[in-house]
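Per your request, structure below.
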């Protein structure tokens, strides 16, 4: 005759399984060789394309906003004496950036390299052509205080720029020993200061072979990914629809404003990234139930949760209170 387990024994069994899963996940991460960002070897990459009509109800996507932020970003990077590669359609914005950079005392004038690149020469034209015409709101109202609304069809144009960030990082790396850091030209001064505070304190650590991407995750979300038997199931606060203004779309775990990688790791990852985008575009064309809206943050988040954490992409707690468990 079977004897039913008592409630205390069931609780102990559950906790044992949970802790075992957590330890095995953490052991896997701790066994990895970690890279640490070295400011003396890093190059910052950024860029700007003034896409016609890229205006929002707020100020985030206006040309004037990016001009102001570009000047502030340049001055802060000059204070850190970090070399910069700036991609743009024409040299007018890069000239603004370079002038602001050189205005900081004791900075070399050759620290900013302007590289001309036409918007039409950016990759992913075919992949982004499947993005829906009405993908106008990245975050539902309850998730965002600054809920900008894009013009019809604008996400398709903007995502082509945003999805190209990894390619531009690889182009900017002079050799495979370069630590390449993408920083959006529109990052706020507060976030920039926080990023360099993290760099100087040595907090940027990620498994060798992977790419570090800024994270919006809390500890609970991170623990969910470490221990979930099905990592494709997003936490409840992100799995509900209405992202991008479409009920078929879910939220993102990563931010594309800051991405950090060794050049050689980028070279290994980009073919996988390209393949993922091609398959995603094909799936959207063939299935009307799939979310037709995406950008670099949603794509990188999907890749991260569909692969072993730390294997290709690794979350960095730049903008959140994420506490990565310490290794022995």
């Amino acid at each position: 005759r079977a004897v039913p387990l008592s409630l205390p024994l069931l609780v102990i069994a559950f906790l044992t399984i949970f802790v075992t899963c957590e330890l095995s996940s953490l052991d896997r991460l701790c066994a990895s060789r970690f890279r640490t960002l070295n400011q003396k070897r890093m190059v910052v990459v950024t860029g700007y394309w003034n896409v016609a009509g890229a205006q929002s109800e707020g100020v985030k996507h206006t040309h004037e906003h990016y001009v102001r932020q570009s000047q502030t970003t340049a001055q802060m990077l000059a204070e850190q004496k970090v070399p910069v590669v700036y991609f743009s359609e024409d040299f007018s914005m890069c000239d603004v950036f370079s002038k602001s950079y050189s205005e900081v005392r004791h900075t070399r004038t050759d620290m900013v390299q302007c590289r001309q690149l036409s918007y039409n020469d950016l990759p992913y034209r075919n992949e982004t052509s499947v993005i829906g015409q009405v993908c106008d709101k990245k975050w539902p109202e309850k998730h965002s205080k600054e809920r900008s609304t894009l013009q019809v069809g604008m996400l398709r144009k903007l995502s082509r720029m945003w999805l190209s960030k990894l390619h531009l990082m690889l182009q900017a790396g002079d050799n495979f020993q370069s630590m390449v850091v993408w920083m959006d030209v529109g990052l706020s001064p507060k976030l920039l200061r926080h990023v360099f505070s993290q760099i100087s304190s040595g907090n940027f650590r990620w498994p060798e072979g992977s790419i570090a991407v800024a994270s919006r995750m809390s500890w609970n979300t991170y623990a969910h990914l470490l221990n979930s038997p099905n990592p494709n199931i997003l936490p409840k606060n992100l799995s509900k629809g209405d992202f991008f203004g479409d009920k078929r779309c879910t939220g993102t775990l990563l931010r594309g404003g800051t991405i950090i990688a060794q050049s050689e790791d980028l070279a290994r990852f980009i073919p996988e990234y390209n393949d993922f985008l091609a398959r995603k575009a094909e799936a959207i064309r063939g299935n009307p139930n799939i979310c037709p809206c995406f950008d670099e943050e949603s794509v990188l988040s999907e890749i991260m949760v569909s692969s072993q954490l730390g294997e290709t992409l690794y979350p960095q707690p730049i903008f959140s209170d994420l506490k990565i468990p310490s290794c022995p």
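The beta strands are 34-36, 42-48, 84-88, 112-116, 179-183, 205-207, 211-215, 254-262, 313-316.

Regards,
D.
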